[in-house]
Specification:
35% of the residues lie in helices and 19% in strands. It folds into two domains: 156 residues, Alpha-Beta Complex (Adenine-n6-DNA-methyltransferase TaqI, Chain A, domain 2); 150 residues, DNA methylase specificity domains (Adenine-n6-DNA-methyltransferase TaqI, Chain A, domain 2, Alpha-Beta Complex). The N terminus is likely disordered. Its EC number is 3.1.21.-. Keywords: DNA-binding, Endonuclease, Hydrolase, Nuclease, Restriction system. GO terms for molecular function: endonuclease activity; hydrolase activity.
Length: 418
C-alpha cells in the first residue's frame, strides 16, 4: 500500500519512481515485557530501559525465558515511548553485544519489508518530525504510542537504491561522527585544563597560607523550603523556587526554577540575595554533592529549596573566592571524606559537615584579586568551550540535513561519495 507524498515528515518532494509507505506496512512493532520487581535477579539477561538507550550502562537483570519478540540483539531498531521535551524517541540502533531483554517502555521494530539500514536512516530523518508532530501540545513528560509510530510515512525507493544510499550514509555519518567525537575530546581537554589550573592554584595557596575550617569564616548554613510548585518558568515579577540544577553545574542558573503557585505566599526568609553561596545537599553521584555557585538573581524573585544549602560568610570574606575554592579538586577531596551514603543511594552532605570543610586560609585582602584572576581564566576557557560547542552543533545539523537529503532522493549518494 502507498500513500501520497503530501505531508511526509521530510518536508520535501520525492522522486517520481519512489513510493511512501506507512511503517506499519513495512515492519512489526512490539512492546517490551512488563517486568515486575519479582522478575529481577542479581545476574542473568540485562533488561534495556530508556536510560540505557541514552547511554547508561546500569542494567537490571532477569532470568526469565521470554518470547523472541522481547529479546534484543545488536543491530535491532528501538524506539522509546516517553521522555522529556526535546529528547529523542529514536530510532536507536542497539549496539551492545549479547542478548538483552526489552522492558515495556520501549518498542522494537521487527520483520522489515525493506533494507534494514534504509529503514534506520529514513526513520532517523523523521526524528524531528516525530518529536514535533507526535508530541505537540504535551506538557512535562511526553509520550508516543505504537499507533503513532506505525503511521510514520517511510519513503521507499527500489531496493538497489536503498542499499546504495544506505552505504553512502554509513560512510558519511561515520566521518562526521569522528569529527563530533574530536570536538567532544576538545571539550574534555578544556574542562581538564580548568580543573588542573584551579587545583594548582589551590594547592599553592594551601602551601603558602595553610588551612582554616569553614566554620571559622561562615555565619550561617541553612536549608530552604520546597512547596509543590508549577514546573514552568516564572515571569520576572513572579516568585519561583530554585531547582538543584540551578547550582549543580557550578555556575548559577537563575532560570532553573519552578514557579511558586499564586495561592502560596513566598516565605521571605528564603529569598535568594546576590552573593549568596548555594550548595547542593545530595545526589546519587558524589560528583554532584556539595557543588557550589554564587547567586546572581538578575532581579528575579527566587527562593531557596530544601535540596540546597545557603552559606553566608563573614563580611570580609569573598563569596566568589570561597565558591571557587569549594569547587577545586583539593578542597573537594577534603569534602568527599564527609559525604554520607554510598554510590547507588542518595549521597548527602550535612550542614555540620560543611562547617568541617577546610579552605585555604588566604587573607581577605588577597581573595578578591585571586578570585578575579581565576574567573578571567575560567571565562577564557568557557569562551573556547562555547566555540567548540557551536562547531559540534553545526556538525550535528549537517549530519541531520545530509540524512534528510539522502533519504528523499535530493542527490545521488553514489556520486556524492566519489
Amino acid at each position: 500500500m502507498t500513500v501520497q507524498p503530501t505531508g511526509i515528515p521530510y518536508g520535501r518532494s520525492l522522486p517520481r519512481h519512489w513510493n511512501v509507505v506507512p511503517l506499519k506496512y513495512l515492519a512489526d512493532l512490539f512492546n517490551g515485557y512488563v517486568f515486575k520487581s519479582q522478575d529481577w535477579a542479581d545476574s542473568g539477561t540485562p533488561i534495556i530501559r530508556i536510560e540505557n538507550l541514552n547511554g547508561s550502562s546500569d542494567f537490571n537483570f532477569s532470568n526469565l525465558d521470554l518470547d523472541a519478540k522481547h529479546r534484543v540483539v545488536r543491530g535491532d531498531l528501538l524506539f522509546s515511548w516517553s521522555g522529556n521535551p526535546g529528547t529523542s524517541f529514536g530510532p536507536f540502533e542497539w549496539g551492545k553485544p549479547g542478548l538483552h531483554f526489552l522492558n515495556q517502555h520501549i518498542f522494537k521494530v521487527d520483520s522489515y519489508g525493506c533494507d534494514a539500514r534504509w529503514l534506520y536512516w529514513s526513520l532517523k530523518a523523521a526524528t524531528h518530525w516525530i518529536e514535533r508532530e507526535l508530541t505537540s501540545g504535551m506538557i512535562g513528560m511526553v509520550h508516543v504510542t505504537k499507533e503513532d509510530l506505525k503511521n510514520v510515512p517511510v519513503p521507499i525507493p527500489p531496493l538497489e537504491e536503498q542499499r546504495r544510499i544506505a552505504d553512502f550514509l554509513d560512510a558519511e555519518t561515520a566521518r562526521i561522527g569522528s569529527l563530533v567525537r574530536a570536538r567532544s575530546a576538545q571539550l574534555r581537554c578544556l574542562e581538564q585544563r580548568w580543573t588542573t589550573h584551579l587545583a594548582d592554584v589551590t594547592n599553592d595557596l594551601i602551601a603558602r597560607y595553610g588551612l582554616v575550617p569553614f566554620r571559622r569564616v561562615l555565619t550561617s548554613v541553612e536549608q530552604g523550603w520546597s512547596p509543590q510548585c508549577d514546573d514552568i518558568e516564572a515571569q520576572p515579577d513572579e516568585w519561583a523556587v530554585l531547582k538543584t540544577s540551578a547550582v549543580s553545574s557550578g555556575i548559577f542558573k537563575p532560570l532553573e526554577h519552578k514557579r511558586l503557585p499564586f495561592n502560596i505566599l513566598p516565605d521571605s526568609r528564603y529569598r535568594i540575595e546576590n552573593g549568596d553561596i548555594l550548595m547542593t545537599r545530595g545526589s546519587g553521584s558524589p560528583a554532584y554533592v556539595g557543588v557550589s555557585a554564587v547567586a546572581d538573581t538578575g532581579g528575579r524573585n527566587l527562593l531557596l529549596s530544601d535540596l540546597l544549602y545557603r552559606v553566608r560568610l563573614e563580611r570580609n570574606w569573598s563569596p566568589e573566592f570561597v565558591a571557587l575554592m569549594l569547587g577545586s579538586a583539593p578542597v573537594r577531596g577534603f569534602m568527599s571524606l564527609l559525604f554520607r551514603g554510598q554510590s547507588g543511594q542518595t549521597i548527602k552532605l550535612r550542614s555540620e559537615d560543611i562547617r568541617a570543610i577546610d579552605l585555604p586560609a588566604v587573607p581577605p585582602r588577597e581573595q578578591i584579586k585571586i578570585a578575579s584572576a581565576l574567573q578571567a581564566k575560567r571565562n577564557a576557557i568557557m569562551r573556547a568551550q562555547a566555540t567548540v560547542q557551536v562547531s559540534g552543533a553545526v556538525l550535528a545539523e549537517r549530519r541531520q540535513a545530509l540524512i534528510a537529503a539522502a533519504v528523499t532522493g535530493q542527490f545521488d549518494g553514489s556520486i556524492a561519495s566519489e
